[in-house]
Specification:
about 240 residues, alpha+beta
Amino acid sequence: MTAIKRPPAKYQPKGLTVLYEDRAIIVVEKPCGLLTIGTDRDKSRTVHSILNEYVRKGDPRSRNRVYIVHRLDRETSGILVLAKSEAAKIFLQGHWQETDKRYLTVVHGALEPKSGTINSYLAENSALTVYSTQDPALGKLSLTEYTVLKEAKGLSLLEIRLLTGRKHQIRVHLSERGHPVAGDRKYGKNDGYPALALHARSISFTHPVNGRRLFFETGIPDLFTRLVGRIDAPAA
């Protein structure tokens, strides 16, 4: 399935970068500060609403729409994959365990060991705060694989491979290890950094129609180089 010819600039979705699009999927880079989809509490502009407008191309009667496959926190930047049909969504979610998701993050302190896997059962309390429990009846098994890429200025740059995709998983796992993500006001500390240093850098998955393996990667946000200096991109 070939990529769709990109429409003129004036029809491009405002606030999002489209990395790839065909008749089944659309892959975008989400900026920090934008919700993936609205909630009962927050009806502000979201990736979902922006892309629904985009695929309808100004026609309110159009039946075109996008379907959420996975989410990124509002404060997290990076790659999102959305489906353009329910069948594509069901396929992608059904094969999600085979999807390779890599993040970059900058955290406080120096981790030991320099690579490993953090695992716990994650649960959420009535205040919508996620926390670890060792009781499998209370939470969902969550696995976060990390590798230290660089240490500088009391901070560590990590590559994260997300083996499960729970809400706030990376932020909670690292915070509970004593290494909160820089700029994380919910699970960290008020460290004065302007944004959350968590970026969904790359993703690899099987196309829902033609079965080909696709790979997408983004650049490294400026915030990261301001925090830890020059970054040599990790191998994909």
